[in-house]
Amino acid sequence: MFDFSSTLGSASNEPKGKPHLDDYRFNQRKVGASLFSLGIYQPNWERVKDTQIKSVGIFDSEYFEPEKWRPSYPYPPFQNMTDRDGFWATKILMRLNDEAIRAIVEEAKYPEPEATDYVTKTLIERRNKIGRYWFSRVNPLDDFQLTSHQGKTWIKFEDLMISSGLAQPGSAIYRYRVIHEKGYEMSPWQEISEKSAEVTTEVQQGMKPGKTYLLQLQTRRSSEDFWSPIVDVILQKKSEVEMVGIQRRYRS
């Protein structure tokens, strides 16, 4: 366990126990709740099962909650983390597929054969929980590309929920509209199933050089009854339409 610090199932030079798992070493609110309820209230860490694997210690995914996770001690980067930070970090994390995670864990050379399988499985499940949480805080559309052909212009994009394997292809619909920077519509909301939004010829003709326009996109999953927060693709027209930025909005 040397040099694992307090990560994974380590508590520096010994396996981590249950107390304050995935939380500060002293959580005044939870300890107080347990004290004043005479033990009736139990923090999540009390329900975590011991792996019985000496080189792993206490390390689980069942009770892991990304939105409630805390390091052992208050740490400013986590204390000041915004939804923007969480989304950025999750995009990087989700690039690690199952095979990459297993290869990394195998490099640790755990002494027990079952340890590698357990840690790999737990990390994959934690990764997926992190992805689902942070990708639900925003509209997880990304990798925007503007393409033009024969006078027609499209904004193409990727859906990170689908490309990360957290949602099935075809499980979402999208809608978009184009508005002027002052807020009035250039084109009304239009629903699409493909990951490509057209900036029509009529809209382009109505654009004035030097002005800013927003192509606004929302997503709705088959399991949801509501539209996601908006992501704005910022457009300007010079000799032709150009994409100049992305602005994300977050779930309140």
Would you kindly provide a brief summary of this structure?
The chain has helices at 28-36, 76-79, 83-93, 98-107, 113-136, 160-163, 201-206; strands at 141-149, 152-159, 172-180, 185-192, 196-199, 212-221, 231-237, 241-248. With 252 residues, it is α+β, with helices and mostly antiparallel strands. Strands 4-3-6-7-8 form a 5-stranded antiparallel sheet.
Structure description:
It is a single chain. The model has no long low-confidence stretch (mean pLDDT about 85). The protein contains seven helices and eight strands; from the N terminus they run αααααββαβββαβββ. With about 250 residues, it is an alpha+beta fold. α4 crosses α5. β1 and β2 (about 150-160) form a beta hairpin. The chain starts with about 25 loop residues before the first helix and ends with a strand.
* SSE order: HHHHHEEHEEEHEEE
SS field, number of helical segments: 7
Number of strands: 8
Outline the low-pLDDT stretches: none
- Classify the helix fraction into a percent range: 25-40%
Give the CA-based shape. elongated
Q: What integer is the average pLDDT?
A: 87
Structural class of the secondary elements? Answer: alpha+beta
Q: What order do the strands of the largest sheet run in, or round the barrel if closed?
A: 4-3-6-7-8
Largest sheet entry? 5 strands, antiparallel
First CA to last CA: what distance? 40 Å
Strand content: 25-35%
For the CA atoms, what is the radius of gyration? 23 Å
